[in-house]
Amino acid sequence: MTREIRLNAFAMNCVTHQSPGLWTHPRDRTAEYNRLPYWLDLARALERGRFDGLFLADVLGVYDVYGNSPDAALKHATQTPANEPLLLISAMAAATQHLGFGVTSNLSFEPPYPFARRMSTLDHLTEGRIGWNVVTGYLDSAARGAGMDKQTAHDDRYDIADEYMEVVYKLWEGSWEDDAAVRDRARGIFTDPSKVHRVTHQGANYRLNAIHLAEPSPQRTPVLYQAGTSPRGRQFAARHAECVFMSGPSAKVIAPRVAAIRELAAKCGRDPREILMFSMFTVVLGETEAEAKAKYQDYRKHISPEGALALMSGWTGVDFSAYALDQEVRHVTNDAGRSAMDNITRADPDRIWTVREVAEHVGIGGIGPVVVGTPQNVADEIEAWCEATDVDGLNMPFAVSPGDFEDISDMLVPELTRRGRYKPSYAAGTLREKLFGKGRARLTLPHPAVQYRPGARARAVE
Predict the structure, then answer these.
(1) Fewer CB within 10 Å: C terminus or N terminus of the chain?
(2) What are the residues facing 13 on neighbouring strands?
(3) What is the pLDDT of residue 361?
């Protein structure tokens, strides 16, 4: 059976996001990132294209690795300034009916108790269309902003994250029974106290003794996304994630990562196909090949090479200002993101990257592939990519926004639909039901969150 291809739009509450310098293009509106009309127009364009969701990235801290200074990031708007993404969701949800929202939130600097309430609130207000991209961060500047000297070691961050997940699962799944909020006007009782349970937790990193402040939301636990593909990140994904986002410049890089996570999921007792894999994939569309190529060349005139290297320096923890442009990039292990460095060093042994090539590649769409062409040719490339990598869908960045997303909705989606590779309409229900099927509003066994529900054999509630 041919699988439908799923699409997420990939954006961030900032200027340009993955295409440094493109905010200067006359068709780009991301300089309006701090005004709601931009986001409402984007959400409507995505729902017109039946996108599964808007995947909102976020980064705490400034990109100050390049030149040991934030100056390049500030000059070129390299994900700086960046506003809080969660505050966008309610407005966009009110402007749409089906579009999902996968929002990034860094657990390293967010206590689990207030965060759990915030996500439950969004799940209520979106009527179950919220997802959480679980991240642990990679910038020392974020740690310094939180009063630390530097970030916690890479693998230790995931150990902390495992415990964090246990705490929020207890709050979301275990504190309130489904029928606790009785709303009995005649008796004047809103909540039955006997059906609300105190959550207690005493661990290596977190202590908690509280009831969850929100009544059960449509999904309870939001749809769980994860974006780290280091060996430790894969272990975390195999245990917790429902959707995994990964980036890489070629199928040769992506395919082994997909296979590794599916294998680990099976070892955790989960169905490997129950984890949806999304890879980054940028497209530039035209009615003709000549039109598409001309558009792409026009975009390239607006790239900021220094902005691109500032971005890559932040991702990898390597100061690319200290390299000559034609110098080969060699692998370095540190406590920044592991996957970004692997992408340009050892993930593809047949490819050697120079600093100049990194800047040129990252300039449009980040580190993923860029495909330029007609809807028919781009659809061919997408089908081949999905076949070669075994991904379930694409996280699609932009060069200019919302124009590129409008092109996808109006040109590419009809072609994929005609081929039977794209849903003809949205399914009913919550985001989890749209992704996994009717009746799947909440997590099911063997996901570890389920054990904390009242009546489950193993739970940490009174």
Answers:
(1) N
(2) none
(3) 86
Token pair 């630390």 is found at: 148
Distance CA 48, CA 432 (A): 20
pLDDT classification of 461: cutoffs 50, 70, 90: very low
Give Cα separations from 6 to 160, 332, 426 (angstroms).
31, 34, 12
Determine the Cα–Cα distance for residues 345 and 318; give it in Å rounded to an integer. 13
Do 134 and 224 contact (CB within 8 A), yes or no?
A: yes
Each residue's pLDDT tens digit, 285-325: 999 999 999 999 999 999 999 999 999 898 888 899 998 88
Q: How much of the chain, in percent, has pLDDT values that exceed 70?
A: 94
User: d(Cα 21, Cα 365) in Å, to the nearest integer?
Assistant: 12
pLDDT in tens, 69-122: 999 999 999 999 999 999 999 999 999 999 999 999 999 999 999 999 999 999
d(CA 406, CA 171): 39
Residue 152: what pLDDT? 86
- At a CB cut-off of 8 Å and minimum separation 6, what does 86 contact? 103, 105, 118, 122
DSSP assignment string, 128-141: S-EEEEEE----HH
Q: What's the Rg (C-alpha) of the chain?
A: 22
Task: Please identify which residue in the block is written with the tokens 């207690």.
Answer: 200
User: Which pLDDT belongs to residue 376?
Assistant: 98
E strands of 234-302, at which residues? 243-246, 276-280, 282-285
Q: Name the pLDDT band for 211 (thresholds 50, 70, 90).
A: very high
Produce one character per residue of 224-252: b if its CB has 16 or more CB atoms within 10 Å, e if not: bbbbbbbebbbbbbbbbbbbbbbbbbbbe
Mean pLDDT across 49-57: 97
Q: Which two tokens stand for residue 450?
A: 């389920």
Q: Are 182 and 176 in contact (CB under 8 A)?
A: no
Task: Give the span between the Cα atoms of 222 and 121, in whole angstroms.
Answer: 11
Residue 110's SS3 state is coil
What is the biggest distance separating any 2 CA atoms in the chain, rounded to whole angstroms?
A: 77
Over residues 54-69, mean pLDDT: 94
Q: With contact defined as beta carbons under 8 Å apart, do 354 and 328 qualify?
A: yes
φ, ψ for residue 250, nearest 5 deg: -150, 160
The three-state secondary structure class of 397 is: coil
Complete domains list, the chain, with CATH: 6-304+369-452 (3.20.20.30)
Q: How deeply is 107 buried, as exposed, middle or buried, from its count of CB atoms within 10 A (0-12, 13-18, 19+)? A: buried
Q: Strands (DSSP E) along 136-217, which ranges?
A: 181-184, 189-191, 199-202, 207-210
